[in-house]
Design a protein that fits this description.
The complex is a heterodimer of chains A (119) and B (407).
Chain A (H helix, E strand, L loop, with lengths): L3 E4 L8 E7 L2 E5 L4 H10 L4 E2 L2 E7 L5 E6 L3 E2 L3 H7 L4 E3 L7 E5 L4 E5 L7
Parallel strand pairs in A: 5-8
Antiparallel strand pairs in A: 1-2, 2-3, 4-7, 5-6, 6-10, 9-10
Chain B lengths: L1 E8 L3 H12 L5 E4 L15 E3 L1 H4 L3 E2 H15 L2 E3 L3 E5 L4 E6 L2 E12 L3 E3 L15 E3 H9 L8 E5 L3 H12 L3 E7 L8 H8 L6 E3 L1 E7 L6 E6 L12 E4 L2 E4 L3 E3 L2 H5 L24 E3 L10 H19 L7 E6 L3 E5 L2 E3 L4 E7 L3 E10 L2 E11 L5 E5 L8 E5 L1
Parallel strand pairs in B: 1-2, 1-8, 2-5, 8-19, 10-17, 11-12, 11-17, 12-13, 20-27
Antiparallel strand pairs in B: 3-4, 6-7, 7-8, 9-18, 14-15, 15-16, 20-22, 21-23, 23-26, 24-25, 24-27
Helix pairs in contact in B: 1-3, 1-8, 5-6
Chain lengths: 119, 407
């Protein structure tokens, strides 16, 4: 199989990966860490991304709390997942690490990535 | 007058890291001045992830990364004043600042400038057309969306391929807007390759290279832009015009280190980076005043901003102990390298070089030599102007000059 070049998105290093199939296995070269190898292995068959967005907060010092998925979710599920969050509001205070939203059907767990105090 | 051993101007990632390390290095009173109501700087509005991979081994959002350093600074015993706008810095290190409580002066034994950068605006580009509403810089869009919960419009054109523009292309798409394209005047992208992948390609947003905005139209609010391709000299190619209807134009056309204080203090600047000229100790031409972070030169990674802040703090601590005087050797660069920082390294110490190439390239080699002997050699699979390269010289020899070359 042809060798493919991919830019790893796991971290800002953005390693230039070379990915190819050999003896039924996916080989990844050029990754500086094991997360990059995992990214290279899944990117061609089951591309996933960490979702970061924000959710409305009521009674807080800020109108929004930023959230981050605890693990990457299938790329095709990103837009529907964000759409599902539009009508969600949580109450202040919110602490980093609080679970804000879950969708087990796509393995999505969103945790707060910012502290929002009570106004 | 109020006194401090070290005053740090700017409470973003560079200033916070400097405050922590200065306290760890035994500096007495460390005073951190921040003009915003909260510490953390631009990290507070960067809700995307990827921060802290080098530093903490996990990818965090900007606010999470900032929160860690705010806690560390508090634990280390650094004093922070928020809502404090520094309006003056003298070569004798008197710092003047304003808070809602009034005007204050503090006499510092050493000062670290960690003032960050700001965005280039439409005025700097000279795009002809009306002055309608709906034209924003990418960082302003990011602030208003992520901190203020404001929405902008449905049809977006992004001018310039800087990282914040790419990040906002994804953010606005997720929030339901249609991002028609990212226009880049240069024949290559200014943002990181990973952001092209995850912010544009993931959402089928075209990156149009060698094309830029020629005219902005609209009376009260922007209605459309006219774009055109440019030739290798940046001149519009007649007949290549396109009309793109839009209600938002986002500019992501570069960041400029913010150095009004440094300039007013008489600190000599580097015209290429827009930051201060510093030596191997990150000290400016004015003794006891140091510079780091995006105010010194624009970085790609916050992890490296923090690291530079820490090095500035270590050097400031050494300066306060009277242990910083060292002979320095100049650093020179060959063609193909846009800048190297610092321009002088201290003999007998570790030397940290940051540099950027002028043009994209493949399979190149970076070499650091002194008097004919090779100090560092690094093979580069891919060189991009958007990616800062760092080299470490283990022991800077006593020589005429250190040369960095790309071949």
């Amino acid at each position: 199989m042809k060798k493919m070049e991919l830019t790893c998105v796991v971290c800002p290093n953005g390693c230039l990966l070379t990915v190819w199939q050999e003896d039924g296995e996916t080989k990844v070269e050029g990754a500086a860490c094991k997360n990059g190898v995992a990214y290279g292995e899944t990117e061609l068959t089951d591309p996933r991304r960490v979702l970061t967005t924000s959710v409305a907060v009521k009674g807080g010092t800020l109108p929004l709390v930023s959230v981050r998925s605890t693990s990457p979710v299938p790329k095709k599920d990103l837009l529907p997942a964000v759409a599902a969050l539009r009508n969600l509001t949580v109450g202040a205070p919110v602490r980093i690490g609080d679970v804000i939203y879950e969708d087990p059907t796509i393995g999505l767990v969103l945790k707060a990535s910012r502290n929002v105090d009570k106004a | 007058m109020e006194k401090a051993d070290l005053v740090i101007i700017g409470g973003g990632p560079a200033g916070l890291a400097a405050a922590v390390r200065a306290r760890e290095a035994g500096v007495g009173r460390v005073l951190l001045l921040e003009r915003n109501p909260i510490l953390g700087g631009i990290l507070n509005q960067c809700i995307h992830d990827g921060f802290g991979v080098i530093r903490f081994g996990s990818a965090m959002s900007g606010p999470e990364y900032a929160a860690r350093f705010v806690d560390m600074a508090k634990d280390a015993g650094a004093e922070a004043v928020t809502g404090a706008m520094v309006v003056g810095l003298s070569p004798e290190r008197t710092v003047t600042y304003i808070t809602p409580q009034g005007l204050f002066e503090v006499q510092a034994k050493a000062v670290i400038l960690s003032t960050g950068c700001r965005e280039r605006t439409r005025g700097a580009l000279g795009v002809p057309g009306n002055r309608p509403a709906g034209v924003y810089t990418a960082g302003v869009v990011q602030y208003l969306m992520n901190m203020r919960n404001l929405s902008f419009g449905r049809n977006v054109v992004i001018m310039g391929s800087g990282d914040i523009g790419l990040i906002m292309a994804r953010r606005m798409t997720l929030e339901g807007a249609k991002v028609h394209c990212v226009l880049e005047k240069l024949p290559f992208c200014s943002g990181l390759p990973r952001n092209v992948r995850q912010c544009l390609e993931d959402f089928d947003i075209p990156l149009c290279l060698a094309e830029t905005v020629k005219e902005i139209h609209g009376d009260d609010h922007i209605t459309h832009v006219v774009t055109a391709k440019v030739d290798e000299k940046g001149r519009f190619i007649p007949g290549s015009e396109r009309t793109i209807p839009c209600d938002v134009l986002v500019l992501s056309v570069g960041l400029i280190p913010e150095n009004e204080l440094a300039k007013a203090c008489g600190i000599e600047m580097d015209p290429v980076t827009g930051g201060a000229l510093v030596d191997g100790h990150l000290m400016t031409g004015v003794p006891g005043i140091f510079s780091c972070g995006n105010g010194l030169h624009v970085h790609d990674l916050v992890d490296l901003v923090s690291e530079e802040g820490e090095r500035a703090a270590e050097q400031a601590a050494a300066y306060l102990r009277g242990a910083i005087e060292k002979p320095m050797v100049p650093v020179t660069v060959s063609g193909g390298i846009r800048y190297v920082l610092p321009r002088r390294l201290a003999v007998g110490e570790e030397g940290y070089l940051s540099l950027r190439v002028t043009l994209p390239g493949r399979d190149q080699k970076l070499t650091v030599t002194a008097g004919g002997s090779v100090l560092v050699s690094k093979r580069m699979k891919r060189c991009m102007p958007s990616e800062m390269i760092r080299l470490k010289v283990k022991n800077v020899p006593d020589c005429q000059k250190v040369e960095v070359s790309l071949s």
